[in-house]
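Hello,

Our lab assistant flagged a job as stuck in the queue for most of the afternoon. It eventually completed. Since we weren't sure the result was trustworthy after the delay, we are filing this so someone can double-check. Below is the sequence as submitted and the structure that was eventually returned. Let us know if re-running is recommended.
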Amino acid sequence: MEHKIVEIAPPGPPEDPLRDWPEARRREFEANQFSGGVGSVLVSETDRVRVWHLHLPPGGWLTFHRHVLDYFWTTPSRGVARGYYQDGRIVDVHHYPGETRHFRHGPGEFFVHAIENVGDTDLIFITVEFLPGENPAIDIPDSQRLSTSPKTRGPS
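-- returned structure --
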């Protein structure tokens, strides 16, 4: 299987890497660049790992988020993910079932990106972040965690 990357736009100039992005995309980057939400939902967390699920239907979007921990992702699906990166690059990545990638982040290292499904199939990823890391983990709000408690209703 082939991991294919197609550059849609090169990095922007160092003084303003997002210069060529639409204003709304630039604002979204500014608003979310420190988010630790690296998937659709955090399904499990221990003192050693965080496990995320990501599901993007065609046209789906995962907003900008920051990777600071060592991690890997794997996908059981085939499809095309468009990545928008902090340096202004935009790339299409063609994924195949079973593809798995590993990433390391040393002290102070990180990267920020967003993902859009530009293909015609659902994209599914499982991401595992390793705790503790060389960098402090980003706090994850309850709204991004899998809720296992039943919804309660007020008095009838």
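-- support follow-up --
The delay was a queue issue, not a problem with the job. The result is valid. The helical segments are 23-32. The first helix runs from residue 23 to 32.
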